[in-house]
Task: structure prediction
Amino acid sequence: MRREDVGPLLQRAADRLPEPDLADAAWAEGVATRRRRRRSILVGLVVVVLIALVAAIGVGASSGNKADFVPPTTPPTDPNDIAPAGQIAGIDYWMAPPPGSERFLDRLETPLGDRLQLPDKVRSLSDQRIDRIAAVVLLKRGGGYEPLLLGSDSSWSLADVQLVAIANGSPLSPGTVSPDGHMAAFPQPGELVTVDASTAEVTHYDVPTEDLRSVSWLGDAQRVLVSGPGVAYRVLVGEGGFGEGALVKISGTSDPEDVTAPFRLDAGAVMRYLVSGQWMMDSALALPVRRWVGQTFSSDNAAARLFVADDLPQVPTRVSQPQVVAAISTLRTLPSRLLVLGEPGAAPPTTGIGPADRQAVREPGCCSVLGWYDDNTPLLEVQGWVLAWDLYSGRVRRVTELAVDGLAIGPGVRP
Result:
C-alpha cells in the first residue's frame, strides 16, 4: 500500500461511522461535574463539623478543673472600698470619719493646697487673668468686700470691685462660680454683680429686690438665678434666645438657697427646674429631713444637698442632731447614697501617728455641700475642712484645711 492510499481509506471508514451528538455529550459532562462539586461540598461540611466537635471535646476535657477559663460572676472589688453601714429610708448610708480625724485622712490633690488661706501678696485680675476659677473667697476691707479668685494653677487674683454686705452678711454664695469656671456672680442689694475672670470685666445687673442672698448658675453659663426670701429672678448675662428678656421673674421660696438649677432637693421631692421658671417634681423622697441646709449641687447623674435629720434609730446621737449629705440619683438606673456626719465619740479618735485633733460637736448649720470634684465625688465643708466623698468606694478624703471665712468652689478645683 502506498502512502497516498491511506487518506482515502480513512475517509471511507469514517463515512460508515455514526455522527456523535456533541450537545448530549456536553450535558452529560456538566451533570457529572455538578455531582462531583456537591459531593466535595458535603464532604467539606462534614469535616468542619467533626473538627468543631473534636475541639469542643478537647477544651471541655482540658478545662475541667481550671477556674481561669470561667469568667467571674461579679467584678473584683477594691480592698480599700468601704461597705455601707446600713440603710436609711431604703438608701445605703456610710458614716463619715469622726470630728478631729480630718487631718489624718488621705488627701485629694487640688489647687486649693493643703491649707487654704488668704495670700500675702496678690496681683490685680486685670494684670493676671484666670482661665478657670478653682475657688472664690472674699477679702474684707472696712465695711466692704473684695473678691479673691483662685485659678486652676493655684494663682490668686484680686477683682477690681467693691462689694457690700447683704442682709445675711457676706455676699459670697456657694453657687458663685459659673459651670465653665469663667465667671463669678455676687448678690448685692438691688443688683447682681458678675466678674469675668478671663477679661477682668465687671458688670452690674439691676434687680427690683433689695434683699438678695443667693445665686445659682444654669448649666449653659449664660443665665443666673438670683434669689431672696420668697422672690427669685433669672438674669441673662450672656447671649439669650430670640425675644428673651434680660430679667425674668421666677418662682421663689422662703429659703433663698432652695433656688438652684437644674435640680433642687426639697421637702419630700427632687424638683427639676423648667425653662418657664417653674419647678416640676422629678421624683419623690422619703428622707427623715428636719430641714435642708445650703444649696443643691448637681452632677451629670446626681443631686447633692445636706440636711439636718430627725432622730435616726440607725445612728443614735448624744450631744448633736444628725446631719446627712444626700446624693440622690437623677438617673433611674443608679442608686442614691447618704453620708452621715457623726458626732464626737466617748474617747478621742487615735491614728497611726498619735491622737487626732480636738473633737468638736457638729452643730446644725456648720456643714454644707460645696459642689462636685467630678461626677462621682461631692465636696463638703465640715467645720474648718473641705472633704471629698467618693460615692462608689465610700471613702472620705481631706481636700484642704480652711483658714478663710466662706468659700465657693469652681470647676477649676479639678486640675
Observations:
- The longest strand covers residues 289-298.
